[in-house]
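User: If you would, consider this record:
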Amino acid sequence: MSESERPIHVVGGGIAGLVAAITAAEGGAPVVLHEAGGRLGGRAVGSAERPWVNLGPHVVFTDGALVRWLRQQRIDVSMRGPMVRGLRMLDDRGTQFPIRQAVQLLPTVLRREAPVDETFGAWAGNAFGEATADLLCRLGGLITYHHDPGALSARFMWERYRRSFLSADRVRWISGGWLSLVDALAARARTLGVHIELDDRVMPQTLPDAPTVIATKLSAAARVLDRGLSWPGARTALLDVATTSDRGWPAVIADVRSDLATCCMIERETAVDPDALGGKGGHLIQAQLGVAPDVGVAEGVARIEDGLDVGFPGWRDAIGWRRAQIVVDATGAVDPPGTTWRDRPSVVQGDDLFLAGDAVAAPGFLSEVSVNSAVDAARRALNARRGRAFAPGWPTVELTPERRLAVLAAVLPAASLNTTTAASADDVEPVDETGPGYRVEQRAGVTTATSITADDGGVRITRLASSRLPGIARAAVERLPVWRRPFRR
C-alpha cells in the first residue's frame, strides 16, 4: 500500500473519536475507527440494557463547540431548552424557588478577572464575601461534578460559572438522550466512508504505523501509548430512577445544604425531554453528586437519596427501576490553582500520534473540550498524512488564524493588516476552536476580519480591512456603528 492510500486511524468510538473521524474523512483521507467495545458512544451512552438513558445529567451549550460544529456539519440533532418554572433550590431553610439566591448572586453579574493561581473559594470570599462565596462554591458542583469546587483554580471556576448561570438560556438537553447524538454522528461517519471496526482493542504493540488520533479516556490513552498521561478529574456518584408517576415533583432541585462543599443536582429529565426513557413511559429522575476519594457508592448514593426524600416526596413508592454507581474521571478535566487548560496533556504526542478527549489541552466546557481537541487532532493528522504521502521530510508550517488573514490580505483589494497586543480578550478561554479561527464581517462594501491568538501574558489581536470604495467613503463606512457579538474562535 502506498503512503497516499494509507488511512488515518482513530482509536475510540466516543464523541471525540467520531468527531475526529468525520473531520479527517471530510479532509479527503480514508479513515479507520477502532472501538474496543461492541458499540459506539463510549461514555456518552448508558448501559447496554438501557443505552438511551444517559449516565447522569447531560447538557450542551448553544454557544459552544459541540453545537456550533453540529450546525456547521448540518447534523440534525433535536434539542430542548431549560424549564425555569420547575427549578427549586434546597438549602438549610428548605425547598424554594431560588429568588433569595438570585438576589444574593447579583454582584456576580459584573465582569471581573479571576486569578489562575488562587483557589476559587479564597478569591470569591475576598470578592463577594464569605456567604456568597460559599454559595458560589457549592453551585460549582453543578458544572464540574467535583466534591470541592472551591479548591479549584479561581479562573477555571469563574469562567464556567459565568457561562452556565449568567447565560442559562444557552443550555440545551439533547432529545432522546445522547444515544441520538451518537447515532447521528455514526451515520455521518459511515456516509463519509469511515470504516468502523468494533471489538477492536488497540494496544501499544498493535498501534498503526500511520497518523493516529487516540480519542479515549486519558487513562486508556496512557495504556495505548505506553506513557504517563494524567490530569485531575472528579469522582461522581450517580443515581438514576425511573418512576411510574411524577406526583407534581419539580423539574430540577439544586441541593446546596451546608453539609456539602458542592451541590447535589437532581433532575426530572422527563420534564424537559418526554423521550428520556426511550418512549418506554414513566418518568426519569437523574442525580449527581461529586464525592471525595474516600467516599464509596453506598455513602454517596445515600446522600443523594436524602435530597430526593426532601424534594421528591413519595419517590421510593413509585420506583420502576434504579441504577446507582460512581464514575471516576468521566466528567472532564478540572484545573487546580496555578494551571489552565494549556497545561493538560498535549494534543500532539509526537511520531504522528495525537490525543483527543475531555481531559487534554483544548479549551471549552465538558464535551466542548472533546470536540475542540478532536477537530484539532484530526487536522494535524491530515497534515501529517499529507507530509508522508506527498512531501516526506518537507517542513510544515501551521496555518494559524493570523497566517490565514495574511493570505486573505494578499488577495483582497486595498487590504490592510495590523496586529496589536492586549492583556486579555473578552473570553479568556475560547469555547469554540472548530472554525477557521477568525471572524469575518461585511457591510457596505467593506470587509473586515479579526483573529485573537493567545500569547505569553495576553493575546494578539490581528485585524484585516479591505474595501473597493474610495478612501473617504471607506473611512466613513468603517466608522458606522455595528453590533458586535462576543468573539468565538
Notes: The chain has three domains: 3-78+176-232+334-388, 79-170+235-328, 401-478. The two ends are 38 Å apart (CA to CA).
